[in-house]
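Data card: per-record layout.
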Amino acid sequence: MHRLGVTGRVVWDVSKPDGRPRRMLNTARAAKYFGFVAKTSFEEGLRKAIDWSRRSRDLRPSSS
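The structure for this 64-residue chain is written out next.
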């Protein structure tokens, strides 16, 4: 998270459910059936999504 400019600490409350069941994309099947091969790493894509979100937030009209 430090590469994304996020500071702080995540503390899990293990006495609570951890969310819905997880699914994973099978990229081998995507390549086989659609010819899709990712060109962006997960970390780079996440950074770009966060940057986009921050820019979009700055463009919103202020509510006054």
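Known properties of this structure: Helices lie at 27-34, 42-59. The mean pLDDT is 81.

See the next section for split statistics.
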